[in-house]
Amino acid sequence: MQISSRLTIAVHILDCIDTFKDSYKLTSDFLAGSVNVNPVIIRRILQQLKAAGIVNVARGSGGAEIAKPLDKITLLDIYNAVECIDNGELFHFHENPNPNCPVGRNIHNALDKKLELVQKAMEEEMKSITLAEIISDTQKLIREEN
Amino acid sequence: MQISSRLTIAVHILDCIDTFKDSYKLTSDFLAGSVNVNPVIIRRILQQLKAAGIVNVARGSGGAEIAKPLDKITLLDIYNAVECIDNGELFHFHENPNPNCPVGRNIHNALDKKLELVQKAMEEEMKSITLAEIISDTQKLIREEN
DNA sequence: TTGTGTTGTAACTATCTTTGTTACAATTAG
DNA sequence: CTAATTGTAACAAAGATAGTTACAACACAA
Fold it and tell me: What backbone phi and psi angles, to 5 degrees, belong to A18?
């Protein structure tokens, strides 16, 4: 199973907000135009980012802005904001190993530690990547188009 | 979205095969008893492990065995065997960013590199964990029960 | 060679998540 | 007040997971 596109959409949204903050009002409609999805999808993700303190959204008047310095927002922050991870666990352990089997009643303990290492490795890498980097890379690519 | 329980079930199966290889015939029924799922689930996962060269399954006579040394089988091998990853990509990128928007037409390039780093970090960690380790940890836990 | 146990696999179902959609009350600015 | 916009409910479609029954193909032993 893949990690949902909410993560890439969220990054896209944030990239747009920063890039166009001086030229356009950043409404869900405007952002939906760039991402190419229904505005409600954008609003839902903006709500998740807002709950995580990453953006502010102006109800009524409209428009979104980024609430923190770009280099203080990591890919992990965005991931945690939009991905609904069950107890924060990346791996889904099968529910009822047989407690009457020696392996069945110990596999959870033995394997959990390893799975935590894997999840940790992934999260550490995500933590090392900032929104500032991503946006700066995007803008470099835009400049190189000309 | 979580990674499916096929991974933990597969490890459980392999752990059982090694632990009980001298005492029992390792049929899908026997394994289903320890994992506590329907035997067909076991057979399906055994087929995936077989396709990856990790186990041999005896049609007709029945029983499964591990096809390689335990320290030559990594968690990544098992993960790749049972997890159906679309083009091998962990992250699902939203399909149609607007090519008429500067951000829309460059976000893919800018973000893909970062996502690859994250996936790589996860896979490297998985590659460093062997089935030998996991089984040895399980058997240590079993011994400590007494 | 016949019977028994087992695998390989198809077919179907239920449930969950994602993604997309319409609709509309609540809110804000002009 | 009006117009634009957000926040959110309600629903539907599509896809994946997980579970089940059923059965042909197969291997071995008596």
Answer: -70, -40
Q: In terms of Cα–Cα distance, which of A107, A91, A109, A73 is closest to B122?
A: A91
DSSP B18: H
- Distance measured from the CA of protein residue B58 to the C1' of nucleotide D30, in angstroms: 21
Residues B46, B13: Cα–Cα separation, whole Å: 8
SS3 B15: helix
Q: pTM for the complete prediction?
A: 0.93
10 Å Cβ neighbour count for A52? 17
The whole-number Å distance from A6's CA to C18's C1' is 9
- The DSSP symbol for A74 reads B
Buried b (16+ CB within 10 A) or exposed e, B45-80: bbebbeebebbebeeeeebbebeeebeebbbbbbbe
Q: Which two tokens stand for residue A107?
A: 């596999």
Contact A98, A104 (CB under 8 A): yes
Measured CA distances, A61 to A17, A64, A77, B11, B33 (Å):
16, 10, 27, 54, 60
**Mean pLDDT to the nearest integer, A12-28:** 97
Q: Using an 8 Å Cβ cutoff, are B82 and B105 in contact?
A: no
Nearest to B92 among A5, A37, A95 (CB): A5
Q: Is A110 on the interface with B (CB under 8 A)?
A: yes
**Structure-block tokens of residue B9:** 């079930």
* For range A5-15, the mean pLDDT: 98
End-to-end CA distance of chain A: 38
Q: What are A55-71's pLDDT values in tens digits?
A: 999 999 989 999 999 99
Interface test with A, best of B106, B108, B142 (most A CBs within 10 A): B106
